[in-house]
Amino acid sequence: MSDKIFTVHVAKETGHEQVAMTRQDIVDTVSANENTWVFVDSQMVNAQELETIDLNDATEIRRKAVGNHKRGSVFRRSLKRLLNGIFGNTVKRRSRFV
């Protein structure tokens, strides 16, 4: 029996791309890099959860590498674009005092 192939939206600083991956490919990517976030239907999941949850009913899988950027502002902009794409345009600029 072959593994099911999932379309994973991979966020990058310059945009995003769609990559075909098996469940094991997704788990291996997250396990190999602790700075990778995976969202299944807007819910953040870790490597252990990916091994057990039912991905067959998932409508969207997103992957984002975080924490390896030279400038924090680039990371914040990239994260804001990712979150706005997932939750709609609701992520506002954070306060200087928080």
Structure description:
The chain is α+β, with helices and mostly antiparallel strands and 98 residues long. It has one domain (5-87): Ubiquitin-like (UB roll) (Roll). The chain has helices spanning 23-32, 47-52, 72-87, and strands spanning 5-12, 15-22, 36-40, 43-45, 61-65. A five-stranded mixed β-sheet has the order 2-1-5-3-4. The N and C termini lie far apart (51 Å).
Number of helices: 3
- Cα-atom Rg, whole angstroms? 14 Å
Shape: globular
**Helix/sheet category:** alpha+beta
User: What is the CATH architecture term?
Assistant: Roll
| Secondary structure: number of strands | 5
Could you list some keywords that capture this structure?
single chain; 98 residues; alpha+beta; Ubiquitin-like (UB roll); 5-stranded mixed β-sheet; 3 helices
Short account of what is shown:
With 98 residues, the chain is an alpha+beta fold. Helix content is 33%, strand content 30%. The chain contains three helices and five strands; from the N terminus they run E-E-H-E-E-H-E-H.
Q: What's the layout of helices and strands?
A:
Elements: E1 5-12, E2 15-22, H1 23-32, E3 36-40, E4 43-45, H2 47-52, E5 61-65, H3 72-87
Parallel strand pairs: 1-5
Antiparallel strand pairs: 1-2, 3-4, 3-5
